[in-house]
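Format notes (please read before filing issues)

Several people have asked whether sequences and structure tokens are stored in separate files. They are not. Every record keeps both together, in the order shown below: the sequence lines, then the token lines. Line labels are part of the format and must not be stripped during preprocessing.
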Amino acid sequence: MDPLHPASSLPQEDVAQNGGARRPAWPWVVGLGLGLVVLWTCARGGRDTKPGPKGAGRPVPVLAVAAHTGDMALSLTGLGTVTPLSTVTVRSRVDGQLVQVAFKEGQEVQQGQLLAQIDPRPFQVQLMQAEGQLAKDQAALKNASLDLARFKDLARQGILAQQQLDAQTSLVNQGQASIQADQAQVASARLNLTYSRITAPISGRVGLRLVDPGNMVHATDTGGLAVITPLNPINVVFTIPADSIQRVLARSRKEPHLPVDAYDRDMTQRLAQGELDAMDNQVDPATGTVKLKARFPNKDHALFPNQFVNAKLFVDTLHQAVLIPTAALQRGPQGIYVYVVKPDHTVELRPVAVQATEGDATAIQSGLKAGDVVVTDGMEKLRPGSTVSLAKPDAPASARH
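Then the structure lines:
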């Protein structure tokens, strides 16, 4: 062994073994794993990119309805106000103390029914005075008439001058005029006595009492005692666009009493049914609308004065039209279209022409025929050629989507 180079004396096998222990084996393992991953990804991607049949994939759950033929009533809708045929404020026609109120607030009253009583005693005294004055003047007239008869006999005999006869005749005429004035006073006193009984001028529902018993009332009071408003029948005044005037006039010539329905403000509940009564004679230039008045029997008092309602005036009817739900209509660059379900459960995008829409129903002018099945819900996931499965109408939204 050379002392200056001790390593050169080691065996070659030992040197090789020591060198192999210093080289790690993990790079080979990692490389092999990456290769396997690449091969698996390429194989899977090749399978996914294979072309499949048209419409392949999971069917889209949708709701669909078959188009059908039927009649559709066309209408015009306008915001209206319920107005009574008449409103009367009950006032006293004489001055006096209110001693009795004979009505209950909110009750239905009939024309001529007693509502209130004013103290009648002052008016009874006035009547007695007028009747006394009438009786006095009647007696004076009777005496003057007897004197006139005597004066005429004396004048014929030449005993009485003509001047005295003329004066007596004038006195009788004055007595007759006094009798007429007294009769008028008696009638006035009786009328005031009648006015002390305040009765209902019209039939209707009486409102809240405005004056309590014991208060003095006057003929010049502006507030009155109560307000009476008839509730049946009742009117609804509503407006329609001026462009629809000729349409309404043309229809009213054929049918004088066009039907009108009154709905609540949300258009969800029909309140009453009536008929068109009149149209205003001019268009409001500020709104471009014209006022119409409809009359309703309102026997159930569903309409109330000053209530806001939506009035629907029926002006025409489409017969044997192709009808579909309005929810089936879609709008796009190509216009209005629907998705039609074909027998193989794929959908077709079909343009349609709309004739009229009324609420939830739409009449189709062209593009569909009776029996065609159109999608009404779930079309947001559809494309032409998509496969669909028809869900039940009562299925939850999660099941359809």
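For reference, the curators noted about this record: The two ends are 88 Å apart (CA to CA). The first strand starts at residue 60 and ends at 66.
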